[in-house]
Amino acid sequence: MNDPAPTRVVKEPLRRIGRPDHKGRGTVESVKEIFAYRELLWRLVSREIRAKYKNSSLGIVWSLVRPLAQLLIYYVAIGQFLGAAGNTPDFAIFIFTGLTIWGLYSEIISVGTTSIVSNGGLVKKVYLPREIFPLAAVGGALFNFAVQFGILIVATFVALKPPLHWELLYLPLVIILVVVLGTAISLVLSAVNVYLRDVQHLVEVMLLIFFWASPIVYSISFVHKSLQGSWLEELYLANPVTLAILGMQKAMWVAGTSDPSQYWPAHLEIRLLIALVVSVFLLWIAQRVFSRLQSNFAQEL
Fold this sequence. Notes:
By secondary structure, the protein is an all-alpha fold. It is built from 17 helices and no strands.
């Protein structure tokens, strides 16, 4: 006579679900597992993009409305009313360059922070590497960045200042830096947000503060004139996002790079490389923190 079902279940050997958690090996196993779920990750990115424009008549056009509205507001309020446009050549290109790279960074963090909570149904039902939810947010942010960056390229040609110079080499370094740093921050925040939902609201406030603490609507020259090379200026330049925005401006804002009166920090490329190395290390730390915190996701959700 066959054993009843509960007895058969008890006799089943215990099997570990997920990856081993042994320092460096845990990180390697995490990468392998995420790669094994790459098709699901792509589907989540596609869902993220489609859901954003679902039942929308204009569709992808809406991804341009906010940055263009910001461009118009800052151009009129700061460029014309406050006179910044007179001291900054091609002020519209300057602003849109900063808004484009900032949009990538802020979207990775803001959407990534809520990614675990918003996918709570999947987390509670099936096992899968939970890192793919913040990574899906990164994919969606990169898609929107590509659209805005295309508009920026068109704008540079319309202004007769296409970025056909060697400083364009800053571009891949800047994008990689922003993606790596943003992913590291979103991994930690998405995990903490599961346990403390106030985090997602705090992120909105912090992004607003860091927006105005970055040279997006004002030139780095104004900062240099105000701080005069003091330790405060070095502290200001220690922000990797500030360096990324400056690198983006170097790559795309031709009028600024050719203007002798425009100030640029010394050894910007070295600063960017150091920031990238630090960001890669932070990404590793963030993944380990995420791995530690994810064990109780299902219970908290």
